[in-house]
Amino acid sequence: MAVTVSDTHRAINAVWRIESARLIAGLVRFVRDVGLAEELAQDALVAALERWPESGVPDNPGAWLMATAKHRAIDRLRRNKLLESKHEELGHELEARREHTAVDLDAAIDDGVGDDLLRLVFISCHPVLSPDARVALTLRLLGGLTTEEIARAFLVPEPTVAQRIVRAKRTLSEAHVPFEVPHGAELEARLSSVLEVIYLIFNEGYSATTGDDWMRPGLCEDALRLGRIVAELVPREAEVHGLVALMEIQASRSRARTLPSGEPVLLLEQNRALWDRILIRRGLQALERAEALEGSRGPYALQAAIAACHARANTPEATDWARIAALYEELAQLTPSPVVELNRSVALSMAFGPAAGLELVDQLTSEPSLRHYHLLPSVRGDLLAKLGRFDEARAEFERAASLTRNARERDLLLDRAAACAHASFRPPD
């Protein structure tokens, strides 16, 4: 069968997603500039788009891209006299490379790929950047996504994403962020930022905040891939494995979370036969790795332990809700949050009845940070409906529908409000 140009382009896109992070990471170590490194990598991608449709995809496409990027780097270094401009920064090491550029550049880029990737992770998620900028830059450099793809995933204009990426690169350059893995307390602080960015990406894919779709699976897949990379790069950090465990287990429910029409299916109504047992097994293994490491459980490991309770139950009734409530209480002590308390109220209602959950929810209604959080009236409406207080429940579901920005979720909440209205007019038996 003849290979078409479109087939070749699809192969190039697949290779780019796999190899771009490694390629950029190796180049950043040499040129000490994220923006320049990405330009060089893009040059290699353009060369592939020009040549591969005629010559065919190489047996080792990643190596081809790397070699092409190296040659582009050498040309750029010579043409712009970058060696001289960076002489003070790079010193004798680069001066020696000047005489044997090709050989030395090979060694500079190919050596320590894992370390380079880890450095790129910490640069992309540096706290000097805003959260939005960290997400955009991480997806661009480590996820291999185009600006258009990032914009489409987060439902923001493409120029907005492009500006975030450009500003992020400029900020990193102006702040003289070193291309290195931090140590000690700085490592812990920076790692927290890395995990936060990855989980933000995953959450946006798992429960889209805006738009017409309940989920954006591509973002979940990107976040999972990034999490797995970091877990292999820093295997002694329990919270990294905790986050991977949490994402694996939550992602296992993806097929069961929507109907073929795209309508959402809530956790207790899902067909658990559709849950991905491979992802569950991987998640439980990651949780075991997290719990085997020394130290107390962190917030991601605790959330993964909660997700594991659901994953181990064949039916909603078989779920250990009392344990989930206890885990949420432990999480609340570790990271106090009204959202954690709201989640704990659901577990309490399942373990000890809706009245127990409603008592906690009612305490949260005056919490300023939850004033516009649609899940507060949604949870309260659910508990009121279970107690037979349908008129109050309907009002809560309608309020929740007015607060959400996701069209699928809005329809679900309005349907629940209508069901309460119908139940309130139902004649007694």
TrEMBL record:
<dbReference type="InterPro" id="IPR007627">
    <property type="entry name" value="RNA_pol_sigma70_r2"/>
</dbReference>
<dbReference type="GO" id="GO:0006352">
    <property type="term" value="P:DNA-templated transcription initiation"/>
</dbReference>
<dbReference type="GO" id="GO:0003677">
    <property type="term" value="F:DNA binding"/>
</dbReference>
<protein>
    <submittedName>
        <fullName>RNA polymerase subunit sigma-24</fullName>
    </submittedName>
</protein>
<dbReference type="Pfam" id="PF04542">
    <property type="entry name" value="Sigma70_r2"/>
</dbReference>
<dbReference type="InterPro" id="IPR013325">
    <property type="entry name" value="RNA_pol_sigma_r2"/>
</dbReference>
<dbReference type="InterPro" id="IPR014284">
    <property type="entry name" value="RNA_pol_sigma-70_dom"/>
</dbReference>
<dbReference type="GO" id="GO:0016987">
    <property type="term" value="F:sigma factor activity"/>
</dbReference>
<dbReference type="Pfam" id="PF20239">
    <property type="entry name" value="DUF6596"/>
</dbReference>
<feature type="domain" description="RNA polymerase sigma factor 70 region 4 type 2">
    <location>
        <begin position="123"/>
        <end position="172"/>
    </location>
</feature>
<dbReference type="InterPro" id="IPR036388">
    <property type="entry name" value="WH-like_DNA-bd_sf"/>
</dbReference>
<dbReference type="Pfam" id="PF08281">
    <property type="entry name" value="Sigma70_r4_2"/>
</dbReference>
<feature type="domain" description="DUF6596">
    <location>
        <begin position="190"/>
        <end position="290"/>
    </location>
</feature>
<dbReference type="InterPro" id="IPR013249">
    <property type="entry name" value="RNA_pol_sigma70_r4_t2"/>
</dbReference>
<feature type="domain" description="RNA polymerase sigma-70 region 2">
    <location>
        <begin position="23"/>
        <end position="81"/>
    </location>
</feature>
<dbReference type="InterPro" id="IPR046531">
    <property type="entry name" value="DUF6596"/>
</dbReference>
<dbReference type="InterPro" id="IPR013324">
    <property type="entry name" value="RNA_pol_sigma_r3/r4-like"/>
</dbReference>
